[in-house]
Design goal:
Structural class: alpha/beta
CATH architecture: 4-Layer Sandwich
CATH superfamily: Ribonuclease Z/Hydroxyacylglutathione hydrolase-like
Number of strands: 15
CATH class: Alpha Beta
Order of helices and strands: EHHEEEEEEEEEHEHEHEEE
Radius of gyration: 18 Å
Strand order of the largest sheet: 1-7-8-9-10-11-12-15-13
């Protein structure tokens, strides 16, 4: 569960240095010791935790607002657990067991930790239970963070899928951000608008720039808008993405490790 580096933003060279250092450290162990460590499932983590299994695919469960549970590869990742305030009013706060929590910020509607899980909210590079997790700093709002401070964009690989979590930001992505995010297999992105979340047109521009294979929209209102909530519905996003296939499902969806090419929008209940 070691933190590998401090916060960073828009510095693609940092990622390369982290990867190079990791590779050099692994090669220096020697074949015999490396094999023994891999067999024990603990050498790379140093804490005896099992290495995450690859290529299992993932199951993603929605708890509403921007809270999702991603299960697969021997780990479970909970995104943006909330308290029932603001646009999350009336929803039941999620309490599933998780290997790690990834929060966009410490705001109550997207960063309510607890439950004994490892809680990550700060940018940096992390290695937890075999998951390599990258957090990238970005303004939470459209005014350089002067209103809502900084948020964290997350990227990691789980069950053979590259996943990016942009569920809590309204910041325009710069070229360096796109380099760090790459082309996600699964992109979680806020679409409901308001002061600290992409609106439909902004979210569509991000999707078209990253070209993910699957998109899961979050942070939008279904039904009656809660009091003190400035977000709208998913419809402006779907309109801006006209021509892109849309699959509407229940609360959960299972995805294989190998996805068909081309972008598809997955709307979870």
């Amino acid at each position: 569960m070691a933190l590998l580096s401090g916060p960073f933003r828009r510095r693609p060279s940092d990622l390369g240095r982290h990867q190079l250092a990791s590779r050099q450290g692994t090669l220096a162990l020697g074949p015999a010791r490396l094999a023994a460590g891999l067999a024990a499932g603990s050498l790379l983590l140093g804490l005896g935790a099992p290495i995450a299994r690859a290529d299992t695919g993932v199951t993603i469960t929605s708890y509403g607002h921007s809270a999702l549970l991603v299960q697969g590869g021997g780990s479970s990742v909970l995104l943006n657990p909330f308290k029932a305030v603001g646009c999350a009013a009336g929803l039941t706060p999620p309490r599933p067991a998780a290997t790690v929590i990834l929060a966009s910020s410490r705001l109550a509607d997207e960063g309510a930790g607890g439950g004994g899980s490892r809680f990550l909210v700060s940018p940096g590079s992390y290695r937890i239970n075999g998951l390599s997790i990258e957090g990238i700093a970005a303004p939470h709002d459209r005014v350089g963070g002067r209103r809502f401070g900084q948020a964290t964009i997350w990227r990691w690989k789980q069950g053979g899928l590259e996943i990016a979590h942009l569920g809590g930001t309204a910041a325009e992505l710069l070229p360096a951000d796109r380099v760090l995010l790459g082309r996600p297999d699964v992109l979680v992105i806020g679409v409901g608008g308001g002061a600290k979340v992409y609106d439909g047109a902004e979210a569509a521009a991000v999707v078209k720039g990253l070209a993910p294979r699957r998109v899961i929209p979050v942070q939008y209102v279904s039904g009656k808008t809660p009091k003190d909530c400035d977000q709208g519905s998913i419809e402006p996003f779907l309109k801006a993405m006209a021509g892109t296939p849309v699959k509407r499902g229940g609360r959960s969806i299972s995805l294989p490790a190998k996805l068909s090419d081309g972008t598809q929008i997955l709307v979870l209940r």
